[in-house]
Amino acid sequence: MDFTLLHPKLVHLPIALGVLMPLMSLGALLAWWRGWLPKRAWVFVVALQALLVVSGVAAMRSGKADEERVEHVVGEARIEAHEEAAELFVWGAAGVLAVALAVAAVKNERTSRAIAGLAVVGTLGVLYLGYRTGEAGGRLVYQDGAASAFTSGAPAAGDAEAETGSEEHDDD
Fold it and tell me: Which of 1, 11, 61, 82 is the most interior residue, by most CB within 10 Å?
């Protein structure tokens, strides 16, 4: 597998799920409330929310791996803003996952639906956090030129010769 540019390959799944989860969770809650689906169908919402969290963590880790290389092109403050937005997005998604899981733990149907409603509202907050994260990442790539760190001639992270312009000489 080619691990070059892994971060841009991974970020789209959590962002897409962040957009879809309000619709999916509201649809599942409505179907459950109307009696079209049983309560156990809520596991679909929990599974998708868990996928959002796991893919968000993977995207953050891959971004951390690219950070050193991109810092040579983009200022650290912009990268930090994107990183902090991503962390808040993933933590928010994990919080919504905890609420969605609580639905299964509560036996009372009415209370369980109310908790599911809270999870639906939480997905809207996660959608907003995902928007902020994507906007900060897009600014890095399209306005600040972060992608140029990966074009030919750009120094690779840890490539001291390319970074300093010095060459190794044989002293023999």
Answer: 82
